[in-house]
Amino acid sequence: MTSPPKQDRSRATRQRLLETTIHCLATDGWEVSTVAFIAARSGISRGAVQHHFPTREALILAALEHMFSSRAALLDNLPEPTGTGPERVHAVVTGLVDAIGGELFQAALQVLTAAAADPDLRAVVVPLERHFARGVHTRAVRLLGVDDTDPAVRALIQATLDLARGLALANILTDDTRRRTHVIQAWSTQLAAALS
Amino acid sequence: MTSPPKQDRSRATRQRLLETTIHCLATDGWEVSTVAFIAARSGISRGAVQHHFPTREALILAALEHMFSSRAALLDNLPEPTGTGPERVHAVVTGLVDAIGGELFQAALQVLTAAAADPDLRAVVVPLERHFARGVHTRAVRLLGVDDTDPAVRALIQATLDLARGLALANILTDDTRRRTHVIQAWSTQLAAALS
């Protein structure tokens, strides 16, 4: 067995670094997640980390992009909803809430919160976040099978995504699963009625 | 004119400290908002700050309580909604979104995000946050003039408060006022239909 080509090893290292960065941000927070800390956690030398990402900002931004692509992939991999009406809407809303929340949200929240108090970081985070938000909106429209050229439909989809972010935030300190189930049910019923 | 009694001066200093802490958290973020930084910003000596709050945690928690009471007061001071139906619901949802968002949210977000990665801080923040969430729910029920012993009504009010938190989060990096107006309108229409 030959060892994998250098380029593949480099790609695998990069991938591992980004995933460790996301995990460190979500678990240990913004302040603790320095290059040295992430390097130690990923078992990669600081020099090798700096070879891939010359600055902490470059590493964090690449991790943010990776997070956003992972979330988009989660949505793309949702099973094609069957049927129409309330069951479909409920399944799609549940899928959206799951894809927007969880560890990816926890990590992204650390970066967004730091960016709220750091104009330089904000300037690079805002376009990424916008691009991601548009991607999620497009996927929500496709999954719901609706036409969002109607401004009322568009606003309802936006509201659903804001609700999903609010639910993700409500889950960061305690397990909010039980309450969230009721909230998703209640909103899905209204959304299905409005879209039908 | 005599100078104010010592107790009043002490109360005024405490109040100024808490308000400066909220402003520093919202503007400068968690990491920067140390006791030394907040003391300098408020023009109060570090010794005097430590007389009121022996630790950074004590100061931050008092600021969090102060934030939560300020938000509750915002809701209590909303004009009694007139009429019934969609206009009332729209006015109440707008009031809730305003009271939950803004600088108070920005400051609270810094604390909640730090608490997400710090079990000791989380242990003291969670009961405070719960107490505040219950207070907002009760005020929303009163303002909407509904009966939340109906589980479906209860879940819709919860959904509205989650939406408000999601909208507050969407506003931390850029001015989201325009989009938010459409979202509140769309949501209020559905909520009014569901509650009537």
Helix content, binned percent of chain A? over 70%
CATH architecture of chain A: Orthogonal Bundle
For the sheet with most strands of chain A, the description reads: none
Query: Quick one: CATH class of chain A?
Result: Mainly Alpha
- Unreliable parts of chain A: none
* Distance between the amino and carboxyl termini of chain A: 58 Å
The backbone outline of chain A, from C-alpha atoms, is elongated
Largest interface: A-B, 51 and 51 residues
Strand content of chain A: under 5%
Structure description:
- By secondary structure, chain A is mainly α.
- Chain A has one domain: Orthogonal Bundle (Tetracycline Repressor, domain 2).
- Chain A is built from nine helices and no strands.
- In chain A, helix 1 packs across helix 4, helix 4 packs across helix 6 and helix 4 runs parallel beside helix 7.
- The first copy, chain A, is elongated and about 55 Å long.
- In chain A, 39% of the residues are buried.
- The mean pLDDT of chain A is 93.
- The interface between A and B is large, with 51 and 51 residues.
- Chains A, B: One of its GO terms (molecular function) is transcription cis-regulatory region binding.
- Chains A, B: It comes from Winogradskya consettensis.
- Chains A, B: Pfam families: TetR_N.
